[in-house]
Every structure is written in structure tokens, then in C-alpha cells.
Amino acid sequence: MARLQPAKPRGLDPVRRLIPWYTKRTYGRAIEPAGILAHHRKLMLGIAAAGMALERSSALPRRLRELAMLRSAQLVGCEWCLDFGSKLAHDTGVPTEDLRELSGWRTSARFDARDRLVLEYAEGMARTPADVSDELFARLRGQFDERQIVELTMAIALENLYNRSNLALGIESDGFSDGMYCVMPDLSANLNGDAAQQVESVGRGS
């Protein structure tokens, strides 16, 4: 159960009532993060505007954007984002087999070179601290133009915002992907080799 309850429509101004209505009309049900965000009018409007702008952007192939955002949610472990993102990926036409193998994208034949490049970038941005090398960015420049890179970067950044705020607020999955394959968390991939060694050393008491 979420740590905050969605704002009740009664007493909200028309704009804050409109956004939950829009999400319900678009997705068939109320979206809990939007309802909770309605407690703060300015932040709700700002985040909703950014999300709607991204949704209407088309510089980047939708498959690449959905894969990058889902991989970010996998690494952070946001159940709500994985549930909702899996539905969006299915709706976009990403095959179930691709979603099943998302954790193993580096070796899976389901992903081509552009897929892998985007997923590597998503992983780098999801790390704490973020780890995007000049070499990686140069490879992005070799495959995508400036507009596409901005769209990809903002998609991953927004997904990380959603992931971490939903986790902090205790927002759980809501059945959007019922009857479909839902991507599962992959928290172990968040540790690089050095971090894993540090955890092991702490466990040994050294």
C-alpha cells in the first residue's frame, strides 16, 4: 500500500481534476502516482507537462525508448514502473521474448547493436553516481542525431525520477500488465565489479 493516499477530487481545482481524468480515459483506470502528485499543484503540472511532451515526441523509435525506460526500472526495482512499462512495451509491439531476455541484453540475439547501445546508456544513467563515459557518448553520436539523443536522455532521466519517487512513496504494481509478460526487477545488475567487491568485503567484516 502506498505511503500517501491519492488526493480526493473534491476540493481540487479544475486542472488537478483534469489530469487524473485524462489518465483514466487514456489508460482505462486512475494512475496512482498522478493521484498522489495531485497534492502539489505546481509539481503535478510540471511533471505532467514533461511526460506529455515526451509521449508526443517521435524523434527516437518507440521501441528504443521503451527498452531504455524499462531497463532503468529494472535496475532501480520500481514495481509500478515495470508493470506499467511492460504494458506500454507490449502496446508498442515489443515482442514478449525481448522482454523476457531484457536482463541478458548483452548476450541475447534478440537485441541489435542500436538496442544494446541504448540499453548501455540507460544502465550508465541509472547508476549512482551516473557513469556515462566520453567513449559511450561518442558511440551514441555515431548512431543518433542531437534531437534523438536529447529525447533518449530525457526519457531515461524521467524514468529514473518516476522509479525513485514511486519507490519512496511505496507505490506498488497495479495490474496494468495482467495477462501479459511483466519484466521483473534486476537489482543485482546495479553493482559494478568494484561495488560488488566492497559489499563482499563488508560481509566478511574486513
Runs in which pLDDT lies below 50 for 5 or more consecutive residues are: 193-206
Radius of gyration: 18 Å
- Percent in helix: 55-70%
| Helix count from the secondary structure assignment | 10
**What percentage of the residues does DSSP assign to strands (E)?**
under 5%
End-to-end separation: 38 Å
How many strand units?
A: 0
Which sheet architecture does the biggest sheet show?
A: none
Structural class, judged by helices and strands? mainly alpha
Mean of all residue-level pLDDT scores: 90
* SSE topology string: HHHHHHHHHH
Bulk shape: globular
Give your account of this protein's structure.
The N and C termini lie far apart (38 Å). The protein has helices at 14-27, 32-37, 41-55, 62-76, 79-92, 96-100, 113-126, 134-143, 146-169, 193-204. The chain is built from ten helices and no strands. The chain is mainly α. It is globular, with a radius of gyration of 18 Å. Residues 193-206 have low confidence and may be disordered.
Please tag this protein with its features:
206 residues; mainly alpha; 0% strand; globular
